[in-house]
Structures are given as C-alpha cells and as structure tokens.
Amino acid sequence: MRSLLLSRRDLDFLLHEWLDVESLTKRERFAEHSRETFDAVLDLSEQVATERFAPHNRAADLDEPRFDGERVHLIPEVAEALAVFAGTGITGAAMDEAVGGMQLPQTVAQACFLWFQAANIATSAYPFLTIANANLLLAHGSPEQVETWVGPMVEGRFFGTMCLSEPQAGSSLADITTRAEPREDGTYRLSGNKMWISGGDHDLSENIVHLVLAKIPGGPAGVKGISLFVVPKILPDGQRNDVVLAGVNHKMGYRGTVNTLLNFGEGRFTPGGEAGAVGTIVGEPGQGLALMFHMMNEARVGVGGGAAALGYTGYLHALDYARTRTQGRPATGKGGPPVAIVEHADVVRMLLAQKSYAEGAVALILYCAKLLDEERTAATAEEQARAHLLLDTLTPIAKSWPSQWCLAANDLAIQVHGGYGYTREYAVEQFYRDNRLNPIHEGTHGIQGLDLLGRKVVIADGAGLTLLQGTLGATVERARAAGLTEHADALGAAVTRVEEVTRTLWAAGDPAVTLANSSVYLEAVGHVVLAWIWLEQLLAAGDREGDFYAGKRAAAQYFFRHELPRTGPQFALLESLDRTTLDVDPATL
After folding, report:
1. H or E segment and range at residue 180
2. Which band of pLDDT confidence, cut at 50, 70 and 90, is reported for residue 173?
3. Per-residue pLDDT tens over the stretch 182-231
C-alpha cells in the first residue's frame, strides 16, 4: 500500500539521483556506510513512523497534555512511541560514534526524520529538540557537560529543551530578565520565568536538560550580557532542581507537544539548602546568544522540515481522496457517470500547487542538510567555508518558505476534500492546525526577513548574496545547455532582479525603509530559490520516462508558470521603496 506520509520514491530520487549521497561514503567520516545502510535506516524510519507515531497522531490532538497542578499527563502512546524511537538509535543518527551515534550523513538523517514529522509532528518534537540540544553541547559544551548529558540524550533516557522566551520578552531576547548568580563552586543559581517551552515538563524521560538563556548580574546590557546555562530538572546527584512547571499552554494545533511556562528558582525545591535553579555555564559569559544560535539555526531548518513534511502528507491525503471521490462530470462531457474529482482541471490545479510546494520544500531542506555535510567533510577548507556561507544565507528561507507555502498546501488539501476536509473525520484539518505554528516558532517570518535582508545578503560585502547568485546562475547555464531554455531564462531574469532590488533597497540610505520591506523581500527571494530547486530537479530527472518523472516535470512547469511570476510585482514594490507601513499612524488602525 502506498504511504500517505511521504513518497519513498521521491526521497530516493532526491537523495540518490539528485544529491548523490552515496558519494559521501568515499569520505572518512562516512566510510563505514553504503547505499544499503542508508536505505536500511530509511526503511526503519518509515516503519516506526507508520506503526508507532502515526496511529496516535489524532488521539494526542484530541486528548492534549493536562496539568493537574503537580505533573503533566499525556496519553501513554506518546511514551511508547518514543521508547521505540530511542531503540532505533536515530536520535544520534548524524552524531559521532564516540558518543553513541551512527555517524550518518546529515542528509540521510534529515530524510529519516521527515518520516516522523509527517507521521506525528507533536510526538516527533521531543526527539527533535533533544537532538538539537545535544548537538549544541557537542559543539560548545565542556567535556564534563558532554559526558554528563549528551550520552543519556543519545540513548533516549534524557530529553532536551531550549529556554529563550519569557512572558514579557518573546523574540526580543535583549529584554530577558532571568538572572544567573555565580557561586564559589563554579555553578550558578538561576531565577526567572521562561515561556513557550516545548517539552518543558513531562514524565517521558528520566530527566530533562534545559538550555537556558540568562543574564549574570553586572554584565553588559542587551544581548551582549546574555549567557547560556545547562539547567537539568534532576541534578547529577539525584536532587530535584528548582525548576517548576507553572502552567501549560493550550494550542490551536501541535497539541501533543506539551508547551509550558517554567519558573526557575521559585524556592519550591532547594538543592543544597539554597533557592535557585542550579546551572552550569556553556562557554564563556556573554556568549549565550551566539552559542544558542547553533541550536536555533539547526531548529530553523528543522522547523522548515516539519512544515514540509506536513505539507507533503497533506498533499498525499488530498491526492488519495481526489482519486477515489467521484463527483461531477467533465466540463466538455455530456451525461455519463460521475468521475473522480482528480479529473477536474481545478482540482488538478490545487494538487499541482501542493506538489510543487511540498516536493520543492523537502528538496530544499535536504539540500541544506547536504550543505552541512559539505561544511563538515568537504576536502578543502575553501569548500567547507563555501558550504557554511551558502547554508547560512539559505537558513531564513529554509525556515520560512516551507512554513508559509506548505501551510498553503494544507489549506488546499482541505479545499480538495471540500466540506469533508473541514471536519475532524479527515486528517487534513489537523495538518493545517499543526502546521500553523511553523510560521511562528523559531523566529517569525518578520524575523527571518530581517535576518535575510538585514544580515545575510550584506555581511562580508555581500558575500552570501554573491555566492547564492553564482550558485543559481550555474544551474541556469546547465539548464540552457540541457535545452531547458524557457525555465533557464525565467530563473536567470529573476536572479538578476534579486541583485538589482537588493542594491536599490540598500541604496535608499534609510535602514528603516529598507527593513520595512524585508518580509516581501524574503517571500520573493524564497520563490526564486524554490524555482532554482525545481530546475535542479528537472536536470536530475533528465530525459527519464515514467509517471514519476512526468509528475516532476508537471510540478516544475506549474511552479515556473504560476508561482515564479508572483515575484515580478513584488520586486516592483520593493524597488519603489514603499513607506506605507512606516507612514501609517497607528491610531488609525
């Protein structure tokens, strides 16, 4: 039976026919692996996602986490699924063998995790956060922190979180007030509140390892005074740390992931006889935000992956429904029995749109994962630096584009189902509600737009933009040589417009005007990047025949003819240096 989570055929195409992940086995880090091991772990991921994660997706949505004033209650299937997940070893799929990992390429690990995100985005959030937490400690933690916390996380005995936002300071981290008072033994005592902490408290694991941003008294003001701390729920000596669950947030979707308000240092628990949550600093004082970006950037690409997975499963559900639901007759037909709605042109339009968004988004996420493999293992320092810069430039797009357009795909999946899609009897309404979180968390569209236009395309004299243009331009030339002239010309013109518009925006001489247009810029450049991703897939497909490749060509044509032209008016608006949002009087809103 064909899976309604993801298309394994598409993953094989992206991994092997396009990205050629098997070639990575020639590198020392991946020398123990082969196409067979990659396929085996993908098979295992599909199996566990299908059998253990997908079956309770609806149940966890209907019976969301409950807080009785003392502890959080979740349906038992969540813990059962996570125990099986831990047993697969996929938590450490891309981590070093020395810490219990599989040392797989990140590209393969990312593809594996997409199965779990498609099957149950809420349950998959617990290992998602844990993996990112462990990776930050592996990169920046002390040997003692790695030994104490990372091994149990890889084994699935401990889970991890990231604690950034506060009730009064969401994305504005300069305004956090959580304090970290140093002690003579080298530890710190933390006090304050953290809001919107996914996985912040539960009984799914032996311990929860919180990575917490806080300020050391007497440090610099603003973000330069932020430091990062490991603050576990249970201390290494077995004492309960002074981290207390104050409440659970009730969400529109993504309900199976408990989302919390945590109090640090309220005095309910007093390890060592003193109030305050015990923490150890990661790195040096004042490095907190820079270090946390290691986890945040990984999470941003991962959020894009989750959005892509939800868009993809929604598309497959809509396609399956459209093939089996009979209603209406062809516009040119005369009488006869009703036909499957997939025969109607407007339904085809909606399915093609979903396909172009979802398959394009998954391809973008896997391309970014491949860049991480290149950054880690490419033969020369120059190649590694190139991969790092390109990944850095693409990260805001990889987070925001799937979050916006795969949510649009979920909207279209509901539309294909008609009235049935708006009922709880069909899965597509939950996919939409679950995916609606992804444009918000790990930095909203507005924040990603500011990051792309305000930082990524201008730092180092525009090196990121220059590299992106050169990468897209190389694909354009390959496409022209392959006879894909129409699409090559369209993408080439769009790449030129990106350069022109970026120059105009920054020549305005007024950063307020420039950055007021950053969200439109993000959306337009994102569409250009996805057109490039589709042209890359066309080149990988070559002249191969069959339904799969015909579907790729149809989705690519849809994107180039229906989606890429959206950027024309957007670029014109950007070039006008529009001041509407700056000049409006808030009192008139």
Report:
1. strand 179-182
2. confident
3. 999 999 999 999 999 999 999 999 999 999 999 999 999 989 999 999 99
SS3 307: helix
Q: Does residue 170 carry a pLDDT above 80? A: no
**228 lies in a domain?**
no
**Nearest Cα to Cα of residue 539 among 472, 483, 469:** 483
Q: Is the pTM of this model over 0.85?
A: yes
- The reply to whether 235 falls in a domain is no
Q: What whole-number distance in Å separates Cα of residue 297 and Cα of residue 277?
A: 27
Q: Please state, as a whole number, how many other Cβ atoms lie within 10 Å of the Cβ of residue 207.
A: 17
Q: Residue 283 gets which letter from DSSP?
A: S
Let me know how many helices (H) and strands (E) the chain has, helices first.
20, 10
In this structure, the dihedral spanned by the alpha carbons of residues 436, 561, 568 and 438, taken in order and rounded to 10 degrees, is 10
The answer to whether 227 touches 286, Cβ cutoff 8 Å, is: yes
Tokens coding 112: 């594996």
What pairs with residue 228 in β-bridges? 213, 282
Six-digit token pair at 78?
A: 């969540």
Give the tens place of pLDDT for each residue, 234-270: 999 999 999 999 999 999 999 999 999 999 999 999 9
DSSP class of residue 326? B
Mean pLDDT rounded to a whole number for the chain: 96
- What pLDDT digit, counting tens, does each position of 121-136 carry? 999 999 999 999 999 9
Residue 213's SS3 state is strand
Give tens-digit pLDDT for 295-306. Answer: 899 999 999 999
Identify the H or E element spanning 342. Answer: none
Task: Tell me the H-state helices in 418-454.
Answer: 428-435, 445-451
Domain contains 504: yes
Q: How far is CA 470 from the centre of its chain?
A: 25
Best CA proximity match to 201, nearest among 230, 172, 238, 160 = 160
Cα-based distances in Å from 501 to 498, 515, 567: 5, 13, 11
Contact 103, 277 (CB under 8 A): no
Q: Do residues 315 and 354 touch, judged by C-beta distance below 8 A?
A: yes
User: Are the beta carbons of 143 and 84 closer than 8 angstroms?
Assistant: no
- The answer on pLDDT for 544 being more than 90 is yes
Amino acid (1-letter code) at residue 542: G
Which residue in 343, 360, 346, 350 sits closest to 409, CA to CA?
Answer: 350
Domains identified in the chain, total number:
1
Is pLDDT of 332 > 90? no
Q: Comparing C-alpha atoms, which of 134, 128, 102 is closest to residue 115?
A: 128
Under 8 Å between Cβ of 15 and 366: yes
Domain containing residue 537: 444-582
Residue 533 and residue 405: Cα distance in Å, rounded? 15
Residue that has been written with the tokens 């006869």 in this structure: 336
Beta carbons of 227 and 190 less than 8 angstroms apart: no
Q: Is 109 part of a structural domain of the chain?
A: no
The pair of three-digit structure tokens given for residue 452, joined into one six-digit string: 């792309």
Partnered with residue 240 across adjacent β-strands are 234
